[in-house]
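Hey, can you fold this one?
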Amino acid sequence: MSYRSLDPRLIIQTTERLEQRIADRFPDAGLRRVARDLVALAGDVSRAAVELEKPILWLRILVGSVFTAGVGVFLFVGTILPLERFAGDTVMESVEGIEASLNTVILAVLGILALVHAEDRIKRKRVFRQLHELRSLIHVIDMHQLTKDPAALSPHFTPAAHSPDRPMKRGDLLRYLDYCSEMLSITGKLAALFAQSVNDEVVIDAVNDIEDLGSNLSRKIWQKIMMLDAEHNAAK
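Sure. Predicted structure:
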């Protein structure tokens, strides 16, 4: 087993185990259903990351065919056809002919370069589609912890008329918040699979944005956990 790269199979196993832990403690909570979606998304992302490591063969064959055909055309024009047919009667006409030839060569090179980078653009689009789902799920996880306020456990807390129902005790609330933090951490690892599979600066920047989003929201959760610990220690 290599410890120099992320193993998609182990990430899926960790996600499934987390879903089972949530089901054991909160079988009827909405967080369990979110965990199920995370398990399904982990499988989709892992498969997509593995596929992205492979070259797009049909595209590479197309690029090779176009390049070969272009080289063949230039060789045909330069060696078989007499160049005098493309020369003008005057210096100006000859210069225009040379300029037109150079423009054709430049356009051909740009076209080939566009085809060469087409594989990167296709893979990048696939990555962004998966990262969009991860970003949406991160916000869903954050919504589930949003109303879990440690201050509600204080004996001096007075709920308002429209305050949400907070039936959890301290131990359950700690576990709930910790599960949310773990789920956010897993989303960052799933995003990192794409940076591992596709060596593209744009993809790496997008993955870093996903990891930063999850880390920032996880810090909010840990602030609540620290508040619970502080209140518990103060009550001793």
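Residues 8-54+119-152+167-235 form a domain with the Glutathione S-transferase Yfyf (Class Pi); Chain A, domain 2 fold (CATH 1.20.1050). Let me know if you want another pass with a different chain boundary.
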